[in-house]
Amino acid sequence: MALARDRFWVIDVEGNGASPPEIIELAMVEVADLSITGNQRHWLIRPVQPITAAASRIHGLTDEDVADAPNMDDIADAILPWIEDTPIVGHNVRVEVDILARSLPEWVPNTAIDTLKLARAVLPGLDSYALGKLGAHLGLDREAAGRSGGHHHAALFDATLTGLIFIDLLRRVPETKRQASLQDADILDPKQGSFL
Questions:
Q1: Other CB atoms closer than 10 Å to residue 162's CB: what's the count?
Q2: Pairing mode of beta strands 23-32, 35-44
Q3: Per-residue pLDDT tens for 39-90?
Q4: In which residue ranges of the chain is pLDDT below 70?
């Protein structure tokens, strides 16, 4: 993975609160050369199971909001080309990997960079590494809101904030150590552990 040449899709999903959860909102923000490119994707998705009240309290989406949205089968072919061969990034990215793998069984991710792991390595000793707290600590919330037009727990806002955090963290790592940092933050890399 050569940082200067690679692009990443920063992904965030919101779920319906079921077990296992279904995706009701998916956002992807492109990062290349340590910049958000402006290329983004966003879908509302109609789940099979209704959205729970607890989930609605978190992200604000209701069954009414997704009633006319396509279901995952309708948009799978639109999502796959963007993430098939491109590294993905997420905050606690295991959530995105697991739910996307269930929703898109033909998807085989090759790289999944976890900004939570990266933040713990680059900024040790913080009281919290929760996405909102980390974004506030780094002063990136306002920029994320301006770029996405959203708020915390809206997928496009969270993907944008995660992208800004990813860029900020990588800029703090000496260039000679960035590859190792990315490898160690990749939850799918069997060799991780040299930096974290």
A1: 30
A2: antiparallel
A3: 999 999 999 999 999 999 999 999 999 999 999 999 999 999 999 889 999 9
A4: 1-5, 192-196
Is residue 80 within 8 Å of residue 107, measured between CB atoms?
yes
- The answer for residues whose C-beta is within 8 angstroms of residue 6's C-beta and 6 or more apart is 32, 87
Angle, helices 155-172 vs 178-185, to 10°: value is: 140
Please enumerate in sequence order all residues whose Cβ is within 8 A of that of 174, keeping only pairs 6 or more positions apart, or say none: none
Domains of the chain: 7-185 (3.30.420.10)
- Token readout for 56 is 């609605």
| Sign of the dihedral defined by the CA atoms of residues 150, 154, 3, 82, in that order | negative
Question: What pTM does this model have?
Answer: 0.94
